[in-house]
Amino acid sequence: MTSREDDALAQAAVAALTGQLALAPKPGLPDPRDLDARSTRREHDSLRWSARALAPGLAAMAASARRTGEPTPVLRAELGAIGRCTEHSVGLAGGGHKGALWALGLLVAAAALDRTAKAREIAANARKIAAFNDKGAPRRPSRGSSISAKYGAAGARGEARAGFPHVRRALDALVTARKAGATENQARLDALLTVMSTLQDTELLYEAGPFGLRHVQAGARGVLEAGGTATKAGAEALVALDADLHERGWSPRGSAGLMAGALFLDALPAL
């Protein structure tokens, strides 16, 4: 059984994911500007429905962590089993968000372990959970793990086992941009670009190889070095990067999932 607090954590995670979807312009990623195109509207609607379909699984992960009370191999196995069931449910709702489910599931579980924990303490608890192997996981390597092994990238597992450094960097970028007077949309876009500028995104490596990854990282850094999205030069660089990635068909989906994790942690003090 899930509690009201479990459900609240799950809904906060879903809100973070849909909040990330609402950002615009997002370089190479679907955003509300594209809704005039029927095919893109279907994709965007599918992503929103898929995000909502994560809620029961995330609440179950929170409940499992609350009952266990500490990071253990048993908790890791339970989270893995719940995650695989949730992936199936999300697939029925249209698919998507697999990477975000991994990050948000661990962060939701870590938050449920200690409801008084701050963002960095939650990330540290998520690292402890991720340190255990999931004995129930399929033996067949995933595409992400295969790409990680091929290119020596940290991948989703490495990100979690390092305590989600890119989630923490995104949180720092949010705070910095807000203090500088950026709008909330600009602050969130700067945080997303901060992730994109250094993340070894296995989805990008699969789509575009090392050259494509470096190209996207350099483009994101260019926006930030121009002053960020709150400046005229930064906004122009963002538009150019967005057009370039859409033309090439490259989508930094790994960054989007970690950005959702940052928005989740950012919202926790308000719960």
What does this molecule look like?
The protein is mainly alpha-helical. The protein is 72% helix and 0% strand. It has helices at residues 4-21, 38-53, 55-68, 73-92, 98-113, 119-130, 143-151, 155-161, 165-179, 184-196, 202-225, 232-248, 253-267. Helix 1 crosses helix 13 (253-267), helix 9 crosses helix 13 and helix 10 (184-196) crosses helix 11. The radius of gyration is 18 Å and the shape is globular. The model has no long low-confidence stretch (mean pLDDT 91).
Give the SSE map.
Layout: H1 4-21, H2 38-53, H3 55-68, H4 73-92, H5 98-113, H6 119-130, H7 143-151, H8 155-161, H9 165-179, H10 184-196, H11 202-225, H12 232-248, H13 253-267
Helix pairs in contact: 1-2, 1-3, 1-5, 1-13, 2-4, 3-4, 3-5, 5-6, 5-13, 7-11, 9-10, 9-13, 10-11, 10-13, 11-12
- Quote the distance from N terminus to C terminus: 20 Å
Major sheet, described briefly? none
Give the integer mean of the pLDDT values: 91
Radius of gyration: 18 Å
- Give helix and strand order, one letter per element, not per position: HHHHHHHHHHHHH
Helix-residue proportion: over 70%
